[in-house]
């Protein structure tokens, strides 16, 4: 019986081809590498997904870098100062 339920739930959450096309189109808008290309240039869905993953990794690296820089900055200011409070809030 549980096997039947899992098949029913997976078919209920199945995404249609039109929904996939719509989602890939929306992803294209967020990707600088692909967004800068001419609209006539065809880009496969797998390429869009690959670029999305690369872009997310890049954003994670940038966040880590900024966090490290803010931590260094926090170490260089008086911990009771207003600047330290602002930096702590940014790190939260």
Automatic annotation (TrEMBL):
<dbReference type="GO" id="GO:0046983">
    <property type="term" value="F:protein dimerization activity"/>
</dbReference>
<keyword id="KW-0804">Transcription</keyword>
<keyword id="KW-0341">Growth regulation</keyword>
<keyword id="KW-0805">Transcription regulation</keyword>
<keyword id="KW-0539">Nucleus</keyword>
<dbReference type="GO" id="GO:0040008">
    <property type="term" value="P:regulation of growth"/>
</dbReference>
<feature type="domain" description="BHLH">
    <location>
        <begin position="4"/>
        <end position="59"/>
    </location>
</feature>
<dbReference type="GO" id="GO:0006355">
    <property type="term" value="P:regulation of DNA-templated transcription"/>
</dbReference>
<dbReference type="InterPro" id="IPR011598">
    <property type="entry name" value="bHLH_dom"/>
</dbReference>
<dbReference type="Pfam" id="PF23174">
    <property type="entry name" value="bHLH_ILI"/>
</dbReference>
<dbReference type="GO" id="GO:0005634">
    <property type="term" value="C:nucleus"/>
</dbReference>
<protein>
    <recommendedName>
        <fullName>BHLH domain-containing protein</fullName>
    </recommendedName>
</protein>
<dbReference type="InterPro" id="IPR044293">
    <property type="entry name" value="PRE"/>
</dbReference>
<dbReference type="InterPro" id="IPR036638">
    <property type="entry name" value="HLH_DNA-bd_sf"/>
</dbReference>
